[in-house]
Amino acid sequence: MIRNLVFDLGNVLISFVPSDYLVKKNYPGTIRNTILKDIFQSDEWKMLDNGDITVSEAIESIAPKSSLRREEIALVFSFRRDIMFPLDENARLLPGLRKKGFKLYYLSNFPLDVFEEIKNDYYFFRHFDGGIISSEVKLSKPDVRIYECLFRKYGLIPSESLYIDDLEENVRAAESAGMPGMTTNGSPCIAEQLGSRLGIMLQ
User: Fold this and answer.
1) Does the structural domain 4-15+84-198 have CATH classification 3.40.50.1820?
2) Is the pLDDT of residue 43 over 80?
3) At what angle do helices 70-78 and 55-62 cross, to 10 degrees?
4) Cα–Cα distance, 179 to 192 (Å, whole number)
């Protein structure tokens, strides 16, 4: 029986699609591709998620390898928050799930500086019973150890928990740790899918 729901944040409860943001801001296609490749798909981005480097260190590391100027790279890092916004239809499910008796947790790859801002600003965090982000524990999904860290911290039984993520790779890792998973593929409305999985009606 599922008693705990564990949510990824990015593209489950919070939209984070840099390519869409860059299009909206009228960045030319070639520059968009360079930004996506050199910054958002970089090793440094993963190291930030893992809490291994600071933003300043990431900028200094990316700059010599990129055609982007250091100032341009710094600008991209400065508007990370602007790319994000709550996926309200999904976030609105949380209070109802708590009323139905589920314990709610988050487990997400996230750099610490941005997370501290959104945790204070986004209304839905008050509904969680706890959670872990990668940069706090120096482990990132799909490393199985980050799921095990969550189980230990909150005394969760993996088989009684359901993990919800937009990426199949992360869900498979959760399942390898003994926790059933559900892949959303970035859907902004998961009520029907989650309700079906839990055998309940969600609105």
Assistant:
1) no
2) yes
3) 140
4) 21
